[in-house]
Amino acid sequence: MTNYPSLIEIKQAHIRIQPFIHRTPLLTSQAINEIADAELYFKCENFQKVGAFKARGAANAVSKLGEEAKKNGVATHSSGNHAAALARAASVAGIPAYIVMPSNAPEIKKKAVKGYGGKIIECEPTLQARETTLDEVVKETGATFIHPYDNYDVIEGQATCALEMWEEGIAFDALMAPVGGGGLLGGTALTSHYLSPDTKIIAGEPEGADDAFRSFQAKKLIPMQGPKTIADGLLTSLGKLNFEIILKHVDDIVTVSDEEIISAMRLIYERMKIVIEPSCAVPLAALLKNKKHFEDQKVGIILSGGNVDLAKLPFK
Amino acid sequence: MTNYPSLIEIKQAHIRIQPFIHRTPLLTSQAINEIADAELYFKCENFQKVGAFKARGAANAVSKLGEEAKKNGVATHSSGNHAAALARAASVAGIPAYIVMPSNAPEIKKKAVKGYGGKIIECEPTLQARETTLDEVVKETGATFIHPYDNYDVIEGQATCALEMWEEGIAFDALMAPVGGGGLLGGTALTSHYLSPDTKIIAGEPEGADDAFRSFQAKKLIPMQGPKTIADGLLTSLGKLNFEIILKHVDDIVTVSDEEIISAMRLIYERMKIVIEPSCAVPLAALLKNKKHFEDQKVGIILSGGNVDLAKLPFK
Predict the structure, then answer these.
(1) What separation in angstroms does the CA of B14 have from each of A214, B67, B157?
(2) Which segments constitute the Tryptophan synthase beta chain-like PALP domain (chains A, B) (predicted)?
(3) How many CB contacts within 8 angstroms connect chain A with chain B?
(4) Does the beta-carbon distance from B311 to A310 stay under 8 Å?
(5) Which of A46, A51, A266 sits opposite B310 (nearest CB)?
(6) Nearest CA of chain B to the CA of A224: how many Å?
(7) What is the pLDDT of residues B232-247, one digit of tens each?
(8) For residue range A229-277, what is the model confidence (pLDDT) as tens digits?
(9) Are A82 and A54 a contacting pair, CB within 8 Å?
């Protein structure tokens, strides 16, 4: 017995968050299909609210809070998309959000959180400082800590992305997602396990932040030390709850170099004319690196987000 | 009496070219609506085949050729999207396309033409050399010259873009398009004149290539000398046939600076997460410059294309 979100719980989450999220399109590109020798379907979470799939998990976690807990608001530490997603979900619910951010977080990320009415608490740029500061905030305010990925309500929310993909009626041979903390990958694997257990679930991971790959191989959680990759959404180490699901329901994790990521990213910009962040290009890079495995298959690829610094695009 | 394309001819063109083009989506952005204080609908021709609306006019012109003319193929001089669009339309029809390009045309543009099987004839980078070389090619091959915009079949094809917008059932108060040679603007104005004569048709034009604006004011065609703007798709001077339609059916032409274009372009990248070329951002820039005129209105904006050099995006 586990307490993983069940299929019915994932469906309930989808109904619960529907007023707060976009149903994002599943796009195809004839040009990329020709290059890949496969039939690819891109789930465009770059068009999602706050520009990333994180809107799903945050909306679900906030919506599930009891009335009493809601009064005190929510808190998290994050310098990425979860921070903005949680601030927005809280704002929609009319409750406070306390976001602990490292003092060196990019101004644009702080601006996004403030734009949604989130209260930023700055701390030193170390994991320890983040956690200590968060503990203090939670103690002071009584806010509920919503972890960016190591949280079943969050995983349940992220699982609704694959649910929408399956609702399109396509018999995917494989589904691919990037892996950082493992919320999206875990949710995708769960939904697909229920709806199409034979579909392969394959993650893409940057070589410079390959803790999920190494943990998956070793069958034990090996945290990341000093990650270094252009895919800045995938720097975090895999979560505990996420790792359990991944060990059970994910078929493979493929690592790719930054060069391969940039090349796949360029392909998506040039051929699909859409803006994605580097992390999104990781699964396509993994597919193109292993083209033979996917020949003539129907593959669903989750493009996880589109929040990128336009002044620092890696194209030459 | 004029021999402008009639509504029924535009509808026939739409049916004729449907197998060769995408029906592009009409997207909205809550964030941009809030900034603009209006309800904007973006027709995404950046997702069109060859990455620009030019696919419509070229497909229509090629499809309308008689069997005899088809045998000898088509020819044009262009270094932009029309070159690729004509090469593709000819390739689909199984006929040759002769594209006269200046020797200094970007490698990426030549590659696109070659990719569609077009035959490139290089010439000196002057308008005179282009025209002389084209004359020679036409004399030698018997190919039919398809002008990029000063051609009713091309205008009729571009007019199908607005036709699709009107088919969405939205009561636009205004429709906006960029103006370079005037094919898209002329076609948009014609279709809207037939279907909703009270809708305002407004063009955006770069200050550094403002011949349409000046011609419109003076009511006579004033060709552009030495245009200079980031909107490289709008460098050409207005066509004769196009100008006649524009004088009759366009309500206003608004000029904007390159700075205003870049700022509108950034907004579209950041908020809509889509890739557009600078020319596309000109109408939104024109709207934002004149916000009061559009307050609470429903405005359709044509995003004309997405072929941009990713290594040279103007964001800082």
Answers:
(1) 55, 20, 7
(2) 17-305
(3) 39
(4) no
(5) A266
(6) 31
(7) 889 889 999 999 999 9
(8) 999 889 889 999 999 999 999 999 999 999 999 999 999 999 999 999 9
(9) yes
